[in-house]
């Protein structure tokens, strides 16, 4: 019989995994991660050593000496999960979105967040790194109004070079690497 630590080492190496468990090749990556986590928690749990009949006194009235007592393993602290931190992060994002709902209703545009709750603001370098652009994606509503307000607040020109709306993709392209400024501006607007 394998000990949990041996199984954990066997699953950690891909070559051993194929040799020990040939059916593991058909198992998806999330399943193997779940198996590894289960084995890791099994490896961290402690067990007590069973007492043998020779080590226990035959007469219950006789006192036990410290040397005759059976030794038990001290429990090790369990690893804490970070699931609560992720739930708290999502709760903060939802509260922020609910609090800023009134501000969003007054604006003629809306910028949706990504599935990981980040703002869809990306930087891009073209022409060998000489042309730097910042792109805002996931815009709903009046893109021209968003471009005009952003240009006015950041001190850029609308149209020509400062802020341009890509008609084909619907993205807003800002000249220069201004991702931090644009993200701060969108956060201040309540997105």
Overall mean pLDDT: 72
Helix content: 40-55%
| Oligomer designation | single chain
Main beta sheet strand tally, sense and closure = 4 strands, antiparallel
* Spatial order of strands in the largest sheet: 2-3-6-5
Distance between the termini: 56 Å
The count of DSSP E runs of length 2 or more, i.e. the number of strands, is 6
Low-confidence spans: pLDDT under 50, at least 5 residues? 15-28
Helix count? 7
Topology of helices and strands:
Blueprint: H1 4-12, H2 14-20, H3 29-44, H4 83-99, H5 101-106, E1 109-111, E2 121-126, E3 131-136, E4 139-141, H6 143-154, E5 163-165, E6 172-175, H7 179-189
Antiparallel strand pairs: 1-4, 2-3, 3-6, 5-6
Overview of this protein structure:
The protein is an alpha+beta fold and 191 residues long. Among the domains are: 4-44, no CATH class; 101-189, SUI1-like domain (Translation Initiation Factor Eif1). The chain has helices at residues 4-12, 14-20, 29-44, 83-99, 101-106, 143-154, 179-189; strands spanning 109-111, 121-126, 131-136, 139-141, 163-165, 172-175. The protein has a four-stranded antiparallel β-sheet with strand order 2-3-6-5, with helices on one face. A hairpin with a 6-residue loop joins strand 5 (163-165) and strand 6 (172-175). The longest helix has 17 residues, at 83-99. One of its GO terms (biological process) is translation. Keywords: Mitochondrion, Ribonucleoprotein, Ribosomal protein. It comes from Staphylotrichum longicolle.
């Amino acid at each position: 019989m394998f000990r949990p630590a041996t199984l954990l080492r066997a699953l950690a190496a891909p070559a051993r995994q194929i040799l020990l468990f040939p059916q593991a090749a058909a198992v998806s990556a999330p399943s193997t991660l779940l198996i590894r986590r289960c084995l890791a928690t099994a490896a961290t749990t402690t067990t007590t050593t069973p007492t043998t009949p020779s080590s226990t006194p035959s007469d219950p009235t006789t006192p036990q000496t410290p040397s005759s007592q059976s030794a038990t393993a001290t429990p090790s602290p369990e690893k804490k999960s970070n699931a609560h931190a992720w739930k708290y992060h999502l709760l903060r994002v939802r509260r922020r979105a609910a609090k800023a709902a009134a501000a969003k209703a007054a604006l003629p545009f809306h910028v949706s967040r990504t599935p990981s709750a980040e703002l869809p603001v990306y930087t891009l370098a073209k022409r060998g790194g000489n042309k730097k652009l910042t792109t805002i994606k996931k815009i709903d509503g009046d893109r021209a109004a968003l471009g005009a307000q952003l240009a006015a607040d950041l001190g850029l020109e609308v149209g020509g070079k400062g802020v341009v709306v890509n008609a084909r993709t619907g993205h807003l392209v800002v000249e220069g690497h201004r991702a931090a400024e644009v993200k701060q501006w969108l956060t201040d607007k309540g997105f």
